[in-house]
Amino acid sequence: MHRIAVIPGDGIGLEVVREALATLELFVNNDTDLTMEWDVFDWGSEYYLEHGKMMPENSLEVLKSFDAILFGAIGDARVPDDVTIWELIMPIRKEFQQYINYRPAKHLKGIQSPIQNNKDIDFVIIRENAEGEYSNMGGHLYKNTKQEVAVQNTVMTREGCEKVARYAFNYARENNYKLVTSATKSNAIVHTMKLWDHCLMNVSESYPDVAFHSVYIDALAASMVQHPEKFGVVVASNLFGDILSDLGSAVVGGLGVSPSANINPEGAYPSMFEPVHGSAPDIAGKGIANPIAQIWSLALLFDHLGYSKQAGLILSSIESTVRDQVVTPDLGGNNSTEEVGNAIRGRVAAALQGGKI
Ligand code: NAI
Ligand code: MG
């Protein structure tokens, strides 16, 4: 029996997690191969406004006993964004050593991509998720004076860089991607990025069957727009990977269809699965948020726990729903969050009942 912790969070997080949970429930009720139970935690901005913190003191202890975490999104105008991020998402990512952030950018047929070259776009961004530019080290002094100064340090370690490099190359090898591209900027950031380059190069030598390119991040960003079909696995530091993954999702149709996984590869702690998007206050409460990124994140969770057939069924059901143009307004349609969720579940249910899994 696998146990899942579910944190819907704020805004559209609540709306899209509802659809993912209904999908999970469908599997639990109809697929005897999948045994899962889940607990839902109401942590987030409402919780903060009531209790003065985003989650209870012992929450990491509580989460640790679960096999995986399904996360929605957080962010609320009544709470500063750095509080929501640093008191909820970051402690989970860091304390649980989820040092791999995995973000696929796969173009689904039926979705209008802004890149119209009719070539298959299917690449994966592996982002370092525990150190680098988001190490939260530095200081800010003499605020609101002429002498005001702020320092933000980037911390990179050989171990951290090599671990993400090995993960990227292993992933490429196991999933038949022929090329690993590293995002660098060692011409300007000469200390940390040179260490990054050095580690990537070292690790690449153990993978003669996978081609390796190191590309400056600025040129890489342009190339991702001009020739996205050329990429296989893109490996990047925390900040670069964060930025590139929004670009990656834009070239395949937007944030509404971009899932992600925060992975602790050793399995010492639970990994966390969440859409790339935030709480989308501009559309929250309207029932039009695209649930695909969240439901796809559930598929990544399934895959991680060994339910790869079920993950595949979710993805093919998403693809067929999109092909049939049952889509929310962000993809040019006029269906609601629930209608898209129902359409995906209808396809999953038909396959399960037909024994097609
Ligand atoms: P956002 O991702 O929430 O929204 C950006 C744009 O994409 C908006 O126009 C939104 O309507 C649209 N969008 C996002 N997800 C969508 C979906 N599923 N369906 C249809 N349209 C969708 O990013 P934004 O506006 O920068 O941030 C809003 C709040 O979310 C902030 O408080 C921010 O801190 C937080 N945030 C939280 C994240 C998380 O929980 N991991 C990640 C990014 C932002
Ligand atoms: Mg981001």
What does this structure look like?
This protein has 357 residues and is of the alpha/beta class. The chain is built from eleven helices and twelve strands. The strands form two sheets. The protein has a ten-stranded mixed sheet with strand order 2-1-3-12-11-4-5-10-8-9, sandwiched between helices. It starts with a strand and ends with a helix. Bound molecules: 1,4-dihydronicotinamide adenine dinucleotide and magnesium ion. Magnesium ion binds next to helix 8. 1,4-dihydronicotinamide adenine dinucleotide is lined by residues 12, 16, 73-75, 81, 89, 255-256, 274, 277-283, 289-290, 293, 328, 330.
Number of helices: 11
The helix fraction, in percent, is 40-55%
| End-to-end CA span | 20 Å
Q: Give helix and strand order, one letter per element, not per position.
A: EHEHHEHEEEEHEHEHEHEEHHH
The structural class is alpha/beta
Q: What gyration radius follows from the Cα positions, in whole Å?
A: 20 Å
Quote the average pLDDT.
Answer: 95
Bound molecules: 1,4-dihydronicotinamide adenine dinucleotide, magnesium ion
Domain count: the total is: 2
How many beta-strand segments? 12
Percent range for β-strand residues: 15-25%
Low-confidence stretches: none
